[in-house]
Amino acid sequence: MGMNVGSNKDDDDVMLDVNMTPLIDVMLVLLIMFIITIPIPNNSINIDLPNGAPPPTSEKPPEPITLRIDAQGKLFWNGQPVENKQALEVLFAGVAQKSDQDQIKVQPDKMSEYKDVAMVMAAAQRLNVKKIGISANGS
């Protein structure tokens, strides 16, 4: 460190100049040393996975159900005609009672009316049917 003290008799103020370059050099060296000595983070996680086959289930897997709506508004549950709205609600109630519900695919005809599709969707929602969708490949 260097310090200049003015010897001029006219100046009453003391002038101090500190050389900062060696301090900055020491700080940079310390910073590099700290960076080098930091341990590398290990991102691996040890998980104990089970061995063997999963236990057999006694329940059969849910089956897809097709609910077709033709151009006249008639309903067909897996190809079988549904007489009226009450019969459809009975079928929906049977699906809703299962713990793992069957998937219902509504296939409206391209000439069917919106009110028929809306009636089916509203009945399914009211009876708590969770797995229902509309298939766009109707005839």
Oligomer: single chain
Any idea what the shape is? Answer: elongated
Radius of gyration, whole Å: 40 Å
SSE ordering: HEEEHEHE
The low-confidence parts are none
Count of separate DSSP helical elements:
3
Structural class: alpha/beta
Sheet with most strands: strand arrangement: 3-2-1-4-5
Question: What does this protein look like?
Answer:
With 139 residues, the chain is an alpha/beta fold. The chain is built from 3 helices and 5 strands; from the N terminus they run αβββαβαβ. The protein has a 5-stranded mixed β-sheet. β2 and β3 (80-82) form a beta hairpin. The longest helix has 17 residues, at 21-37.
Give keywords.
alpha/beta; 5-stranded mixed beta sheet; 139 residues; 5 strands
